[in-house]
Amino acid sequence: MKKKRVIMKRIIFCLIVIINSVYSQPENPGSFQAGWISATLNRDGRTINTVIYYPAISEGSGAQIDTSNGPYSIVAFGHGFFMQNNYYISLFKHLASYGHIVIAPQFPDNNHLQLGFDLLFCANHLKNESRNPNSIFYRLVDTAKVGLSGHSMGGGASLLAAANDSTVDVVAPLAAAETNPSAISVMNKIKAVVYLITAQNDGVTPPANHQIPMYNNALPIKGIPTLKGANHTKFMDTRLFDWTDPRGYLTPAEQLRLTRRYLTSIFNLFLKEDSSYFKYAFGTVAQNDTSIILERQLKPLRPKPFGLISPNNFSFINQKIINFNWNSTYSLNLNDVVRYKIVISRDSTFNTIFFTKDSISSTNYQHLFEEDGKFYWKVIAYTSDSTFTQTNFFSFIILLAGNEDKSFTPQQFKLEQNYPNPFGGAINSSNTETTIKFDLPTDSKVLLEVYNIVGEKVATLINQDLSAGFHNINFSGKELSTGVYFYKLSASDFTSTKKFIFIR
């Protein structure tokens, strides 16, 4: 009986593993339902009718958007020549189920360059809606994460759009068509990740004449997954136009499955910054998938933001050996090797470097100090000389044995420039905080306030008596709008004002 229970547990465990492996595949629906609305936009006299699909509590037109899991990234999608935006609804719903807001215009004409600007205008519309208190998307759009896609003509237009907007994160068209002006010729101007999903048996935009030259002229990071046996028309839900390209042998269901798999993977990797999708977009799963032919070219990427742990700004240390600790980080290119460099300075601007050590592979370092005083330290994570991310800085004071009578009280009042500056979600979506530091040579009544550009007070950070010493405060700008602000310190007879920029 006991043996049977053990066998049954093993069977159940195996079934759970199998089920999880099936439902975790990016071609299968995500955790959200899809809601949708329509919107009519106007760009310089061009009327653009759009459909917008978004993560919702339940599926349906006008369904309640899921407000608990945003903000959601943007995907603007352009339809093919003589096609309709509603030919791609299954794809829009699928992307919405993974937490993307998809906006798909019905193009008013076939002017390829203008179609690209239409896509950018649609993406900017969602950014503006995130700032509109009357919109269902208020504060639910990740304005720093934009992806572009499209089919055929719309795919080519998405490449033109990316070449004209360096803030686009990833462009991933389906069977992209060469355009006028030439998308092929501007590929090396695209700063975004380029991922060209291509049909092997495409008789309308053959890869050899369209996507392969695009890929060859693009900068890394780039990939071109070619769907074996796929044709031009089966990227759409409708079968009305299959007669125009009868070459492909894939079934429509299989071609759409592969399309969902690779489009979802690249968007989740670079818009959601979910590194678990690297294996599907570029890594082992994609390389071993016999349904596609994958070419790729990767380069080192900037490591994700990370922070310091200790010693922190309140550390007074009476020993020579100091242990420095910080959080780990990673690159979305999982082939990258991240190394760390610790920098210790005598001043907060790091003009007077005391000590540096690079090529550190762990998240801690031990250093022997022969001097005491106040020090500042930060860590730089890098994957190459030109791809690196640095932390904010911490300060600490070393008081060596026998020097206890030394005073580490500041000699004068001082208000330092906040760091980082500028700051905000548009720069780093995971950090909307900045640090303000100031020095008090005497015990003082301190007032620290924030004002907007027209002189209105927007926040009081400190209004209390503080003891002499080195002080700092973290300030969150999550309630602020994008703009220029001033922070003012008043202590005893000392007053100082500095400026910062917040970008939502």
How does this model look, in words?
The chain is of the alpha/beta class and 504 residues long. The protein folds into 3 domains: 13-297, Alpha/Beta hydrolase fold, catalytic domain (Rossmann fold, 3-Layer(aba) Sandwich), CATH 3.40.50.1820; 300-406, Immunoglobulin-like (Sandwich); 409-504, Immunoglobulin-like. Helix content is 20%, strand content 34%. The protein has helices spanning 2-23, 89-97, 112-130, 153-163, 183-186, 211-217, 252-270, 278-281, 284-287, and strands spanning 33-43, 46-56, 60-61, 72-78, 100-106, 141-150, 170-171, 193-195, 198-199, 222-227, 292-297, 308-310, 315-317, 321-326, 339-345, 353-360, 364-368, 373-382, 388-390, 394-398, 414-415, 433-440, 444-452, 457-466, 469-476, 483-491, 494-502. The strands form 5 sheets. Strands 1, 2, 3, 4, 5, 6, 7, 8, 9, 10 and 11 form an 11-stranded mixed beta sheet that branches. Strands 13, 15, 16, 18, 19 and 20 form a 6-stranded mixed beta sheet that branches. A 4-stranded antiparallel beta sheet has the order 24-23-26-27, with no helix packed on it. Strand 7, helix 5 and strand 8 form a beta-alpha-beta unit. Residues 9-23 have low confidence and may be disordered.
Summarize the helices and strands and which ones pair or pack.
Layout (H helix, E strand, L loop, with lengths): L1 H22 L9 E11 L2 E11 L3 E2 L10 E7 L10 H9 L2 E7 L5 H19 L10 E10 L2 H11 L6 E2 L11 H4 L6 E3 L2 E2 L11 H7 L4 E6 L24 H19 L7 H4 L2 H4 L4 E6 L10 E3 L4 E3 L3 E6 L12 E7 L7 E8 L3 E5 L4 E10 L5 E3 L3 E5 L15 E2 L17 E8 L3 E9 L4 E10 L2 E8 L6 E9 L2 E9 L2
Helix pairs in contact: 3-4
